[in-house]
């Protein structure tokens, strides 16, 4: 018994000593100020009280726009204002673009080839270049192969909504997710998801995978416990991603057989190459275009999964948030529909070429993304020590840009919590673009070297989808939702989505 008490006392002394040493070391290191951490858990209780982007914004209100928080073993510096965001994403961006993968992404070795979590280097640059040049560039999206696919995706969504409306209420996010899923599949593989059962299985696997991607996980805060996977996040992520992998592998095998048939003179494939063709060409050559990175089956599988999950979730969640805001602001919705009727006339849907003539539609989308940024917290890692606003950001430190807080900065945005698209009508076009304002008050797709890879696709699809849904249907809330108000609570996964899926009633007007 005496030995037990001696052990406990020793552990307490060591813990208290470590805690005091940590506090002294923090002061000497010139880290930005922040809430006082507790032993072992740091500031986890401060952050876990609500969604992290909200709790970190609340803490920044007390400790400043550049602050330090300790989340278990993780030391994070958080930027929460336009000026600190500019320092991270522009001034010092070359040294603050590292990234450590969340524990869930270690499942099936996904992180080893993921363009989203790879550190900046040859492999990361090669994959980004591949996605940009062969699928997600403006030139590709406006080309002969992809432009019709984008149009067909909008029309497909309109058909889905019509079908849902005839059967009852419309689950907006689910319909948009399904339409974007089919679009992205066709863009990558030149093949549709024609098997209804397989499409449904892929839909469910993809939605859960993105929900688990950045789910708060004790393994990320206490790496020593990661092997136990106490919350089961890595195991669940592995099961869902494995299903996506399997369906991608089937496409790869089918395409390789087609290529063998072509070589034998019995194939029939023709036309512009899709992304899978490009990756298989590089794989057969042994290296990427620069001769620096090998593209093998693991790289192909992971890269296509990343592109697929990110693009479908980003656009569908943005549409759902926009619809939720408009349904709660009927005057704004009426103003938007009047603009669409005036500009489009009898035209059935919005195309990218129409968007320049639809300033109020653009303003609605920008205001939606201001209030509901796709990724509210952008994580980077310091590759070397830098100084920001007189404080040190040490090498290896996690650097979070809280886009949600930046977009609600009262100094930049009057009435920051109010949905008011008119604020964007007074801005010059170059000040209100999706790439962000020069003063970094509005950066919905981040900025710098890690700017969102799917930005060109998003700029085309969110306007076309929202404009077409507003033009083709009259929208109202179900009586029970109207009585209790729309639940605008958030859920954080790969992107920020509505915790309660939006239900609405649609009536065709065309």
> Shape from CA axes?
globular
What is the CATH topology?
Cytochrome p450
* Sequence stretches where pLDDT stays below 50 over 5 or more residues: 3-24
CATH architecture: Orthogonal Bundle
User: What is the H/E string?
Assistant: HHHEEHHHHEHHHHHHHHEEEEHHHEHEEE
Q: Could you give the count of β-strands?
A: 11
Helix content: 40-55%
Structurally, the number of domains stands at 1
Organism: Setaria italica (Foxtail millet)
Cofactor: heme
InterPro entries: Cyt_P450, Cyt_P450_CS, Cyt_P450_E_grp-I, Cyt_P450_sf
Protein name: Cytochrome P450
How would you describe what is shown here?
InterPro entries: Cyt_P450, Cyt_P450_CS, Cyt_P450_E_grp-I, Cyt_P450_sf. Its cofactor is heme. This is Cytochrome P450. Pfam families: p450. The protein is α+β, with helices and mostly antiparallel strands and 510 residues long. The chain has one domain: Cytochrome p450. The chain is 53% helix and 9% strand. The protein contains 19 helices and 11 strands. α11 packs across α13. It is globular and about 65 Å long.
Lay out the secondary structure:
Blueprint (H helix, E strand, L loop, with lengths): L1 H27 L15 H5 L3 H12 L2 E6 L2 E6 L2 H10 L30 H15 L1 H4 L4 H22 L2 E2 H18 L6 H18 L4 H4 L11 H32 L10 H11 L11 H32 L1 H15 L14 H13 L5 E5 L4 E3 L2 E3 L4 E5 H4 L15 H4 L29 H18 E4 L2 H6 L5 E3 L3 E3 L4 E6 L2
Parallel strand pairs: 2-7
Antiparallel strand pairs: 1-2, 3-11, 4-7, 5-6, 8-11, 9-10
Helix pairs in contact: 7-8, 7-18, 8-13, 9-11, 11-13, 13-15, 13-18
